[in-house]
Amino acid sequence: MIRPNQIHWFKYPHDLVWPIIFSVVAVFWWCNVYFLLSRNPTFDAYLNETIYENYEERIERLSYIGPLYFIVGEHGDIQIQWKSCLGMINVYCIAITTLVTIMCLGYSVYKKMQSVNDMVAEKTRALQKQLFHALVLQTIVPIIFMYSPTTVLFICPIIGVELGVIANITSICLALYPALDPLVVMYFIRDYRTYLMKKLNLTRSVSTTTRNTSITKHDTDII
């Protein structure tokens, strides 16, 4: 624990501040999506042809959210869509804040573990190392499967790159992330990993091999 004097923030009634913060962020996200990134006639007209070419579906039958940064007028003039731009600024403010918070807290945990490394028991030190490795991987997984694909998806329209059906990879990555996140914990925490391997009967072959090896060695010694 880095600051034990701050533990009261996780006890009643001070712990109520956390669900309040989460609720405020959730309401802010809803307002951002509903008022700034929701569908509109201009966006429908822009997407209608592309959606029909790739999926043979009419835009009127679909629900979607997203940014339309600019449109090109009849005379080649660029008309910036400020609502969408503001909406995406809000999205990336939230994303960058969460990522920076995770990295700062992870670095603080690492420094604290290094400072008390010689003051804890070997078993406690091993558990802390497992938890830290799981934390690092749980930071890398969303960067690969959530932040990176969505960043590419939202930046490509700005530079004039049309992804087409390739953009569906983003949806696949976002669907994989919640499944991969707990797998990281189950793999790096030894007790979880051992229990899971026992349930899947993956330790029997190892025990048999060990037993055969010891018997062979014993026979050799006798000879």
From TrEMBL:
This is G-protein coupled receptors family 1 profile domain-containing protein. Pfam families: 7TM_GPCR_Str (PF10326). The keyword Nucleotide-binding does not apply. Signal peptide: none annotated. The keyword Nucleotide-binding does not apply. Keywords: Membrane, Transmembrane, Transmembrane helix. The chain crosses the membrane at residues 16-37, 89-110, 131-160, 166-189. One of its GO terms (cellular component) is plasma membrane. GO terms for molecular function: G protein-coupled olfactory receptor activity. One of its GO terms (biological process) is olfactory behavior. It comes from Caenorhabditis nigoni. The lineage of its organism: Eukaryota, Metazoa, Ecdysozoa, Nematoda, Chromadorea.
